[in-house]
Amino acid sequence: MKHYPLLTIDHEALRSNMETVIGWCDKAGIGVAGVIKGSTGMTSVALDYESCGAKWIASSRLEQLKRAREAGVKLPLMMIRVPMISELEEMAELCGYSLQSSMDTLDALERVLAAKDMKHSVILMADLGDLREGIFERTEFVRTAKHIEDELPHVLLAGIGTNLGCVGSVVPTKEKMETLAGLAEAVEDTIGRPLEIVSGGATSSLMPVIDGVIPHKINNLRIGALVLCGPLEDYRTCYGREEADVLSDEVFTLEAEVIEAGVKPTHPVGELGVNAFGERAKYVDRGNRKRVLLAIGRADYGDIGDIVPMLEGAEVTMASGDHTIMDIEDSGKELKVGDKVKFKLKYTAILRLTASENVYKEHQKGRKQNGSQQEQ
Ligand SMILES: *Cc1c(COP(=O)(O)O)cnc(C)c1O
Asked: Does the predicted TM-score (pTM) go above 0.85?
């Protein structure tokens, strides 16, 4: 008997998405770091990325990278959230590469590495306006690169990178990519040798790759979201590029069970205060409508906008921590208690559902590896 709520991972679709993205990048001379944090570091996702030709496995969490290594990932590991000083020792033991943006952390890393007589490669991050990690001032950036090169013998300056389209929503335009390429040349002039890596960003930086305008100098991207979600959130993952239409948006799907079915009013009845989350919600009175109550809630997936019913005409209208209400009036379908309903998932829902202990996971391995397996 299957358990619900059930998150299904279609590994064939996942590998097909990754192979397509790696194909685009290959043509532009770009190596891909497969980012696993969106799936809470699912080890099977890391192994799929490795088998598809990713050159690194990357995450923002050391715990996830450690599990990937233990599961048999052979590729170099890349820590892509600039590390805490308190985790440098563990990071040095585990990862060959990390993103960095603070002189203090780099100096501390040198001491950790010197004590262990080890080396570690870093990618120095430039903030090109998105305002998350990275050095903002150009002269300070070049000075920090020079400091690593000349003063930190155990820290190897593998390259430079940037991150866009994140907290500041800055679009990775051709111009931003050219700024990064220019910065790489300035660093190379200063240190007197070529850099191994110029890392142009995340999924959002695939846009200039698809458009064929990415500078040759950029030879690395760190990709997660588009491979996991496909074009479902097209303005977040691929800015509406139709080239992404070949990708599957059903790598991760969710099934929830109906625990109540029937007709109810659409506007609450009584004096209205706040909902379960302390929010003053707005309700549209659409009269009495057919709806189902599902045994899944915001504790599992976060926000109702991040789950998309696959039943045409159905709409998720309200949810508490453990309950979701779906209006099925316009679907023309009858549902009863015990039936299951299916959803496509946006990035944040995948992030949360993969992390939830209350959601069962089923891995469909595809034709090559037979069968499927269910686990909690
Ligand atoms: C999350 C992250 C990525 C991957 O982003 P996606 O949008 O999932 O492709 C790349 N680089 C850094 C620094 C990140 O934090």
From this structure: yes
